[in-house]
Specification:
This protein is α/β, with parallel strands linked by helices and about 260 residues long. It is built from eight helices and 15 strands. The chain is globular and about 40 Å long.
């Protein structure tokens, strides 16, 4: 199990946001847990120094391209990038230093999978450099992929068949448990268990981690098959649940 670091960008700034409050309207509904006075470069160089790999640079809306470039170019091959990625620009982001590109919304239209678009991205970058973000919310007792800054439900349930289908196209999965994202209220245990049962690819769980106990819980529930990212609970993002030092130590222990 690995600790996957993150650099979430909103308005060109490193922030931690309650995921369920993201919307096209950038005003009052947005709840921000933390806004950093440090640059994306600072975080990328720190992750590089500490040997953390496979971290995620996520562009939350427009106005984040330059900030993302700053991070990727500081740590070539060490970070993935997502947010507004499509078949036309995917190769560009790899050329700028991303190890992988992350896509979700582009491959869905009106709640349904656009396999033609998925194949276009696959042709542009190759399976080995593509991550599918299957971030989800619960509805009627089941988890469904959500798109467009997690506002819109698709008709794609996250289950064993879904992961088997998408595994043909990508190298990894990234799954945010959106209902608990940014709340530091504990993880979605049911989702972690299911992902551990279903996934055949490297898969990163995100959402709700409030302490290092949750990292060990993800390891247990996910049968050792899941990595995890920590956001608002981390002290480097203004949190008081997990120290960055402890997260790095966890990663090093797992690697050894």
């Amino acid at each position: 199990m690995r600790f996957r670091p993150c650099i979430d960008l909103h308005g060109g700034q490193v922030k931690q946001i309650v995921g369920s409050t993201l919307s096209d309207d950038q005003s009052s509904s947005l709840k921000t847990n933390f806004a950093s006075d440090k640059s994306p470069l600072f975080y990328a160089e720190m992750y590089k120094r500490d040997g953390l790999v496979g971290g995620h640079v996520i562009k939350l809306g427009s106005g984040n391209d330059q900030a993302a470039l700053e991070a990727l170019q500081a740590y070539p091959g060490g970070l993935q990038v997502g947010g507004g990625i499509n078949a036309k620009n995917a190769a560009y982001w790899l050329d700028q230093g991303a190890s992988h590109v992350i896509i979700t919304s582009y491959v869905f239209e009106k709640g349904r999978v656009r396999e033609d678009r998925l194949l276009e991205v696959l042709q542009a970058v190759g399976k080995g450099r593509l991550v599918l973000d299957l971030s989800c919310r619960k509805k009627g007792g089941k988890y469904y992929v959500v798109t467009d800054r997690w506002q819109n439900f698709t008709d794609m349930e996250v289950n064993g068949e879904t992961l088997k289908y998408f595994a043909k196209f990508c190298d990894e999965f990234l799954v945010h448990a959106v209902d608990v994202e940014g709340k530091c209220s504990g993880i979605e245990q049911e989702l972690a268990v299911n992902l551990g049962k279903w996934t055949t690819l490297p898969t990163t769980y995100a959402g709700g981690i409030q302490s290092m106990n949750d990292m060990y819980l993800i390891k247990e529930l996910g049968a050792g098959k899941l990595d995890a990212t920590i956001g608002s609970a981390l002290d480097i993002f203004g949190g008081n649940g997990v120290t960055y030092t402890d997260a790095v130590a966890f990663d090093k222990a797992e690697r050894s």
